[in-house]
Amino acid sequence: MITVTLSGNWATVPLPDMPLGITVHDGAFWVCGAHEMIARSRDGGRTWQILHEKTGGQMLFTLAFTGAGTVQAFGTSGVRVLSVDSGQHWKRSWTAPGRAFNEVRFANAQIGYGFGPGGFAKTRDGGQSWTFWCIHQKKEQGAVVAMTVSDANNALFLTADNHLVMTSNGGRTWQDMPFGGKANWTGLGAAAGKYRLFGSWDGAIPRILRGSRTSPATSASPWEPYKCNPQGCLVSDGWADLNGGHWAWPEDTAHPLTGKWGVVGDGACRVSDVLRCRVGRRTALSPPPPAAKAASSGPHPLCVHCPDPPFPPCRALRALRTCVGSVLLRCLIGTDGRVHAIILVGAQGAGLAGAAMQAVRKWRYSMPKSTGSKGMIGLITVTYHAPHTNVF
User: Fold this and answer.
1) 360 phi and psi, to 5 degrees?
2) Which CATH class is domain 291-391?
3) CA-CA 20 to 30 A from 215: which of 9, 32, 135, 193?
4) Contacts 24+ apart (CB under 8 A), 199-208
5) CATH code of the domain made up of 2-285
6) 315-358, pLDDT tens digit by residue?
């Protein structure tokens, strides 16, 4: 048992292996990671129990719950770690050899969808086997960065270049919806039979896409969501649930929020290079002032010192068949040209996100004269085995 003293500041949980994914189920935190580690906390992050670990095993990125007491984790090389008794006993299997899963979500005990480097997939037998589709049927499509599942027939995938790929008939046919250059979508949600697409439009005005599965429409929001999970979406210095409730977390420039997070009661935990948790009273998150929203428009910062990040020296990474991949980061660049805060939006390629975030923190920019007093917010894409690009 691992015990952590939590307060209003973020505390590091000393897990035995690197955490790679986190989810909340039935009032408990569940974390998966390297060496097939699976850990659980039933008291808001104060104590943790290691339920599964295999030295030299695969990397687990996502957890799914498909029935009473049934939990399964997926990761590299198509590994599946399954428990049917709430984590007391585990069984390993290979559901998709040679494939890797970044995220898996189930509509019911049998039907689920997932994605990883190179494509998205569906299972009809509770995760035992998968059917894959290639996301590069059209050259302009990029890597999948987010997904949401409404029911067994309806699933929606978001690609890095603002394409929505959706099915309304269980994967028999797929519809491609490009949004063009003005859109900057970073998260997805599904509620009350409708999809919600979170992000910004034209780089300055936050938007939420609301509508039916086939004919969505847009509406403005006073805050800008970054990365969504079934609980809600990250916003500036906090999070918001899908019903419109907003809560603030204290600013932490040394360990910025990532897209992997969860909330249980008064406890909040997030995964970056380590697992960090905190407790505290939730407070209302005020909408950003107009000047802050306007700061993201106009001239762009110019990168003056942005060396390519090296590949992380990780045995598990070298064991993979390919090391190519992209990492999408949302960054706050201060008036001094330094990167003050980073949020992980999405990553393609195992083990690359941490190295990319560490390198980007050292980048330096020349800021335009029109920069606001709080700096500028934009996206940075770090691509391995290819030059990195900056998108603002």
Assistant:
1) -65, -30
2) alpha beta
3) 135
4) 199/224, 199/225, 200/224, 200/296, 202/297, 203/296, 203/297, 203/378, 203/392, 204/293, 204/294, 204/296, 204/297, 205/293, 206/293
5) 2.130.10.10
6) 444 444 345 566 777 777 888 888 877 777 666 555 677 778 88
